[in-house]
Design goal:
The complex is a heterodimer of chains A (about 170) and B (about 240).
Chain A (H helix, E strand, L loop, with lengths): L11 H16 L11 H9 L22 E5 L4 H13 L5 E5 L1 H5 L22 E3 L6 H16 L11 H8 L1
Parallel strand pairs in A: 1-2, 2-3
Chain B lengths: L2 H9 L6 E5 L6 E4 L4 H10 L7 E9 L3 E10 L4 E10 L12 E3 L8 H12 L2 E3 L27 E2 L2 E2 L48 H18 L13
Parallel strand pairs in B: 2-5, 6-7
Antiparallel strand pairs in B: 1-2, 3-4, 4-5, 8-9
The chains are: A mainly alpha (about 170), B alpha/beta (about 240).
Chain lengths: ~170, ~240
């Protein structure tokens, strides 16, 4: 697929194939088994039976970045951890998505002023697709974030030639 | 045994440098000379009628005139506890950026103290003479400064990771672009204690917790409704059948 990426004309049959691929991708988002702080507890609740993220196809946390499509960053990212977050993101295969979960990850949260060690939002380190604020977010909010991501994936162009902004190209291939 | 009893045992132990018991605090404490720290803790741990087996924590408080080390001890055998404090006076005058107060380590008495003392070194820059593993515990090894000190200067980034709110994200930078525009260095003679931030002008309880605030909120609400529906009285739906 890599060779054909965004190389075919933007016509109805190509768009149909794109839509089928996006449906597959959006319905089987495999998140990485990854937790940093207290939001991770809430994330585990979303994986578990009561809320059951598997209803949306995202309930199969993979234990390696090589197999995962999504990295949910749940919890305060500090200077020590940011290096590891960036490395894990770099190890993920395309297409890859980032979901920032919680106030700390969306912009520093309570540490925004006096947090000497806190990265003020994980978007300073890796490009974020979906922000889910809250301290911690309700399980419904995280599920809504996953559904928003699914919606975003459904709008992507896989084979069809479509314009991408310079910012998006930088974020992906920098 | 209560705090008075424990202080009496300490005072009659013959160890030099045991201060008076301060019972005015909710948690009464004894102030010690730093030379008396290790003998006093050893005494409290080993005497059969005190038996302080547990060192709950070692912490420190930075005061304008001193660095105050606090030791919380308790006994599981006798169900009593005691707080000990050691004060290291701040040197007179000058810039204290590089002041490293030093106290003897109690790691030889309680091995649990090793990590607690490493934490105080990490965050407050207190030196513990005799600690066998005197490294930082939480922050990266190459971190500069001790963040909980009053005169700490906040870093802009660490090892290429931006730490400021207005930093440019890593993946949006052009080659050679700095993380943010250069800032002036901290001026010499900056006061050690920053003045408190100015209070908000918003009246306390404007949400309706005090009578005055509630009146103010009601007036605002009436005003808002009047502006929204001119000519129909105070509210849009009020008065309609």
């Amino acid at each position: 697929m890599g060779v054909l990426n965004n190389s075919l004309p933007d016509i109805a049959p190509v768009r149909g194939v794109d839509a089928a691929i996006n449906w597959g991708r959006g319905s089987s988002i495999w998140p990485m088994t990854f937790g940093i702080a207290c939001c991770a507890i809430e994330m585990m609740a979303v994986y578990a039976a009561t809320f059951d993220l598997d209803r949306f196809g995202a309930g199969v946390p993979r234990a390696t970045p090589r197999q995962s499509d999504l990295i949910i960053v749940p919890g305060t990212v500090n200077a020590k951890m940011a290096v590891r977050v960036k490395r894990l993101y770099d190890q993920m295969a395309e297409p890859r998505y980032v979901l920032a979960m919680g106030a700390c990850v969306c912009g520093g949260g309570p540490y925004v002023k006096w947090g000497y060690n806190t990265v003020k939002g994980v978007h300073k380190v890796i490009p974020v697709d979906i922000f889910v604020p809250g301290c911690p977010p309700r399980p419904e909010a995280l599920m809504d974030g996953i559904l928003k991501l699914k919606e975003k994936i459904s709008r992507e162009a896989v084979f069809a030639r479509r314009e991408r902004s310079a910012r998006e190209m930088d974020a992906r291939y920098g | 045994m209560n705090e008075q009893g424990l202080h009496g045992r300490l005072a009659s132990s013959g160890i030099a440098g045991i201060g008076a018991l301060d019972s005015s605090a909710r948690d009464p404490f004894v102030v010690l000379e730093s030379a008396a720290l290790v003998p006093a803790l050893t005494f409290l741990r080993d005497q059969p009628d005190t038996r302080m087996e547990v060192l709950h924590n070692v912490t420190a408080v930075e005061r304008p005139d001193a660095m105050e080390l606090v030791y919380h001890l308790c006994s599981l055998t006798h169900h009593h506890s005691l707080t000990l404090k050691v004060k290291v006076p701040r040197p007179e005058g000058g810039n204290h950026d590089n002041w490293r107060p030093e106290v003897p380590s109690v790691a030889g008495v309680y091995s649990a103290a090793i990590w607690h003392e490493r934490e105080q070194w990490d965050l407050l820059g207190v030196r513990f003479a005799g600690n066998p593993d005197h490294r930082r515990i939480l922050l990266p090894e190459e971190w500069i400064g001790h963040p909980l000190r009053k005169d700490y200067v906040y870093p802009t980034d660490h090892g290429g990771i931006p730490l400021e709110l207005d930093a440019v994200p890593l993946y949006e930078r052009r080659p050679g672009q700095p993380s943010q525009p250069p800032k002036p260095p901290r001026p010499a003679g900056t006061p050690l204690f920053q003045p408190p931030a100015a209070l908000s002008k918003r009246p306390v309880g404007a949400g309706g917790t005090t009578d005055e605030g509630r009146k103010q909120a009601e007036a605002l609400e009436k005003d808002r409704l009047a502006r929204r529906a001119p000519g129909t009285g105070a509210g849009g739906t009020e008065g309609k059948p």
